[in-house]
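Hello,

I think I submitted the fe (ii) ion job twice by accident. Can you confirm which output corresponds to this input? Input:
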Amino acid sequence: MPRTREHTLTLPVTGTTPDAVTLTDAERDELIALASGVLAAGPALIDEPAWLDTVRDASAMLPRRILSELRRFRHDAGPDAVLLLRNVPVVASDPLPETPSVPGSVERVPAVASALVTAAMMQLGEVIAYRSEKTGALVQNVVPVPGSENSQSNAGSVLLELHVENAFHDNKPDYVGLLCVREDATGDAKLCTSSIRRALPLLSERTVAVLAAPRFLTEPPPSFGGLNSVTPAHPILVGDLEDPNILVDFAATHPLDDEAAAAMSELREALMRTMSALALRVGDLAVVDNRLAVHGRTSFTPRYDGQDRWLHRVYAHLDHRRSRVDRKGGGAVLD
Ligand SMILES: [Fe+2]
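Support: Only one job matched these inputs. Its output is below.
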């Protein structure tokens, strides 16, 4: 199914920010010590099996307040379905390398930032990746890539439409962690998040009923190169309609009839009216509950000078057994 929809609307940025937890200097020192321990004890490469074992062990020793916040978020992601930890260290004392700009960029060699984002996500669930996306790397770089400006993917720089991460996949991530390693100097690139909990009260009863029916198809994102299958028809609102999950990608989900199309439009409008927009700063770790919230990004202009916006992305899901069928050999990578 071709991606013919045009993304010409500007997201109405409200400037609101989800509740944030700012780390103290003492907590930063604890985290640098924890990451240093991982780098000293762990394997040479992130995607070796021993990496997750090492980080899992270390993650149990995160500062007490962070453990508590992660556990609380896991229990209930709140009305915004986003947890924002600020002031997370991304380097110890060494300088930050230049922002990569190659397609499919991932982190291979462990570093402070990759160790800490993995440790935090490990306390929410099991860290996973997808073989078809960035070669199954556990810590992926979200960076602008020359020639991919118009892509509806992590490599693009035009407006990235609101979406559930890997919405087409049977075992999509339950949580998406985005750690800002280098901020967009212009401040134009804003992470946009919107939760169905905020948007639901704005929808009519009829629209909710339509969105809860299997009247939609979702195609895989372009980062899953070569995969052409689409989902079976599915509902956008899933579960108890008093507090449903959301399953939609406004760049990849297609309504099957006119009424379904109108319901999708009303939903997008409601999500935009309740949206948070955040220019991530260095050390911001935004964790999105991928069952309750959609996310996207405003457009920005990369310079490709080594100083562009740079995020580490790590996925986690809650039920490792549920996805066993997709994890050949029992590792962390789903097919
Ligand atoms: Fe995404």
